[in-house]
Amino acid sequence: MKARRGFSSARTSVLGDPSVPWREGWAPWLRGIEARARDFGLLPLARWAAALAEDLEVASAPASPLEQAVARVAAQPIATETLAEGPFFRLLRFAPLGGSAGPRILLVAPCSGYAACVLAELATVLASAGRLAVLEWKDARLVPVAAGRLDAAEQAALCGAAVARFAPHAVVALSQSGDAALAAVLAARSATDRALPRALVLLGSPVVPEAAPTAWQRALARVPETTLATFCLERVGPGWPGEGRLVFPGVLQLATVAASEPLLFGAVRLRAFSERLEGENGPGCRALRDLYAIQDVPGELWLDLVARLRRPKTELSEQARAAGRGLALLTVEAGADALVGRGQTHAVQARFEPEGALRARITLPGAGHHDLFTGPVFRALLTPRLRAFLAAAR
After folding, report:
1. Strand 170-174 relative to strand 89-94, pairing
2. Are 328 and 337 in contact (CB under 8 A)?
3. How far apart are CA 174 and CA 337, in angstroms?
4. Which sign, positive or negative, has the C-alpha torsion 16, 21, 24, 26?
5. Cα torsion angle, 150, 89, 134, 55, sign
6. Which phi and psi angles does 83 have, rounded to 5°?
């Protein structure tokens, strides 16, 4: 119970006294009003109190394990097996949904401030299309300093080890994980004479950030690294396994999402509140839980990501280009993505020779970053084409 209170305090100290998080103080009071209102038959008041309490509680609750989130989306139990685990990562294999014996698919989760459970809908689609494994990253606040560092090079190395362990036919990477997945795929194909993986899918990944930097990216690139470290990173406090580790707090990632997509953030909160007033726990409530499913990122990895925005354009080596010959490549962008610039994912296509390979580009018009892995736009516009590509690339 102590760990749960510590989690809440760390997430809410910016909003009040860290010794008495205001969310933990007000939520039980509202639950008490809910109970008394129900006792007296005042159902509208009870629903209002419950809705407000749940809104406070969702921000302090720890993120769900990925396997639980997938089981909820799939509406059925699903067997899992941990293939490998280290201080910073877990490689989790899912039993195929519907008994499918399709291609082996590795989903590489991003390490950008959100827990892998937000990818539950994408993971469910992939588990129904083949034999799925997910490489997810642990909350850096829970990793002891003695475990060492996780920078961009180490992330790519761990991704390469996951590819070697699972031997996937296809690798799917989202957002921040694109660089690590691309490096791992090319290294594996170079080592196996281009046998596996046969396909790579990049979903809203800024693998060519110089193509069209967003306002956020331009701003970050202009700030000196020492200043960024001072204002954006913090040391993990006492009582946590990672005490003393320098991290980029997940709460800042939440703030970035809220600032870059305020209409989405507001709409999700409003829909969730509306569902609660009706006594429901529907898609809006799940979307709100996903928004708050944040975790901390190793500070050295975050600084590496920002440093990449300052580098001049880089080209693939001849060895990498050779490894990419024959690689089936699908790049997907959201037309109104506020986090990843237009063309930053598609531009990687020009770095490979198209001869003899399946290549495809998809742009979801008017879509935001989250539409690349969850929601009605994802289900209607992307899921069928993603399935078709993976089947054709096998």
Report:
1. unpaired
2. no
3. 13
4. negative
5. negative
6. -80, -35
Mention every residue, 6+ apart, whose C-beta is less than 8 A from residue 29: none
Tokens read off for 266:
């507001």
Q: CA 244, CA 240: separation in Å to the nearest integer?
A: 9
Give the homologous superfamily in CATH for domain 72-217+302-393: Alpha/Beta hydrolase fold, catalytic domain (3.40.50.1820)
Three-state DSSP at 338 gives: coil
Domain boundaries, the chain: 1-62, 72-217+302-393
The packing angle between helices 2-12 and 22-39, to 10°, is: 110
Q: Taking the model in full, what pTM does it have?
A: 0.83
pLDDT tens digits for range 161-192: 999 999 999 999 999 999 999 999 999 999 88
Residue given tokens 């997810």 in the structure block? 136
Q: What distance in Å separates the CA atoms of residue 157 and residue 162, rounded to the nearest whole number?
A: 9
Q: Got the DSSP string for 378-390?
A: IIIIIHHHHHHHH
**Under DSSP, is residue 203 helix (H, G, I), strand (E, B) or coil?**
strand
